[in-house]
């Protein structure tokens, strides 16, 4: 019966800590969860269980990357909810923990390419946007964000971050998304969120992206006043403010944002009408004072 099967799948996911201590059960557990993916009503529950197993058993699952990649590729046809797909992508990245940088780099590029191809189709064909469906750019950016949010690779001295190549390959697509949907606050916010996780993941390795990123952020903010760009600017200041090579540029960025923000806030009801701008501009200024005094 459905109810019994659903409860069993949830229970197996909740036992992930125990399974990590008994790795001899791992293959059978994963097979059971994967079988649940083939039943539309159970697919999302199974996906949550797989994510939980990946999180707890990541050191024992790197050899299963290809199998998980296949599941991610088929996720939408299986009827898995977007939140569960994001969870699957999170788990798929987590099992890369401990692999050499070149292996991680290729895996991240492959995983990102799944969402990038779909997003490219939407942009190139000017597909009408229906929120929360596969025609929604925000959906694919949430999945890309999950990849970088979950990557916790620690680079050695002189080593390039394995996520840099994936980020550089994505940049033209993210830039194009900001250009095409710059008047759509919801999509722009999700794109900025994706960029935020890229910056947090790569840290100073994201330097090659910095100049074009700041340029598009200031340009779109000047015309459309999306405060998420101010928040993104605070992340940039946080990551690069202590590096003297970037301080002059960061001051110029902050001045450019301020030139637009202060007139918005100076009107009779400016502070009431733009609460997010107040919060995000304050955060940016605070980060500049802290990191780039």
Describe, in plain words, how this protein is organized in 3D.
The structure is a single chain. This protein is mainly alpha-helical and 293 residues long. Helices cover 74% and strands 0% of the residues. The protein contains 15 helices and no strands. The relative contact order is 0.07.
Give a topology summary.
Layout: H1 2-14, H2 16-21, H3 26-37, H4 40-56, H5 65-74, H6 82-94, H7 101-124, H8 137-150, H9 164-180, H10 185-202, H11 207-224, H12 228-240, H13 244-265, H14 270-273, H15 275-291
Helix pairs in contact: 1-4, 3-4, 4-6, 5-6, 6-8, 7-8, 7-9, 8-10, 9-10, 9-11, 10-12, 11-12, 11-13, 12-13, 12-15, 13-15
Explain briefly what this protein structure is.
The chain is 74% helix and 0% strand. The protein is mainly alpha-helical and 293 residues long.
Principal-axis shape equals globular
Q: How do the SSEs run, as a string of H and E?
A: HHHHHHHHHHHHHHH
Average pLDDT over all residues: 95
Helix segment tally = 15
Strand content: under 5%
Alpha-beta content class:
mainly alpha
Taking all Cα atoms into account, the compactness measure Rg is 21 Å
- How would you characterize the largest beta sheet? none
**What is the helix content?**
over 70%
What's the number of extended β-strand segments? Answer: 0
Distance between the termini: 64 Å
Stretches where pLDDT falls below 50 for ≥5 residues?
none
